[in-house]
């Protein structure tokens, strides 16, 4: 089960130390399959869908920082496809989320299981 003080993200009050500690912990949990990406996305859902752009941006930064620490061969083809769709949709979001979106897409572009179909 994923444990995270979501209120810190909801109020957009995460400091650098909080981010680093939680990104390291959750990326480790995901890479050891103690936590799934689905569980993480479900947990972060309220932040990623928040009505304030700065909160969504903070959630996206947090999520992207976690997946950025995973190995290039960690995600299977289906997960890569879902994340490509997720990040592509984020391109339509507020302009402040663009850097984190591009960082996520950059990680996915290096994923071993990225297929040609997912690029279209």
How does the helix and strand content classify structurally?
A: mainly alpha
Stretches where pLDDT is under 50 for at least 5 consecutive residues are none
Average pLDDT works out at: 92
Which assembly state applies to the chains in this document? single chain
Helical run tally: 6
Query: How many strand units?
Result: 0
Report, as a whole number of angstroms, the end-to-end distance: 35 Å
Order of helices and strands: HHHHHH
Note the main attributes of this structure.
6 helices; mainly alpha; globular; 120 residues
Would you spell out the secondary-structure blueprint of this structure?
Blueprint: H1 6-10, H2 16-31, H3 37-48, H4 53-67, H5 77-90, H6 98-109
Helix pairs in contact: 2-4, 3-4, 4-6, 5-6
Structure commentary:
The protein is mostly helical and 120 residues long. Helices cover 62% and strands 0% of the residues. The chain is built from 6 helices and no strands. Helix 3 packs antiparallel against helix 4. The longest helix is centred in the first third of the chain and has 16 residues. The chain is globular.
């Amino acid at each position: 089960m994923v444990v995270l003080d979501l209120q810190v993200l909801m109020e957009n009050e995460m400091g650098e130390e909080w981010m680093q500690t939680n990104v390291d912990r959750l990326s480790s949990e995901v890479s050891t399959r103690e936590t799934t990406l689905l569980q993480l996305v479900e947990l972060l859902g309220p932040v990623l869908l928040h009505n304030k752009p700065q909160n969504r941006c903070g959630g996206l930064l947090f999520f992207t920082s976690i997946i950025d620490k995973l190995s290039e061969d960690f995600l299977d083809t289906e997960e890569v496809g879902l994340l490509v769709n997720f990040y592509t949709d984020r391109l339509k979001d507020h302009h402040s989320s663009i850097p984190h979106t591009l960082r996520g897409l950059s990680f996915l572009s290096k994923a071993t299981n990225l297929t040609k179909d997912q690029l279209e």
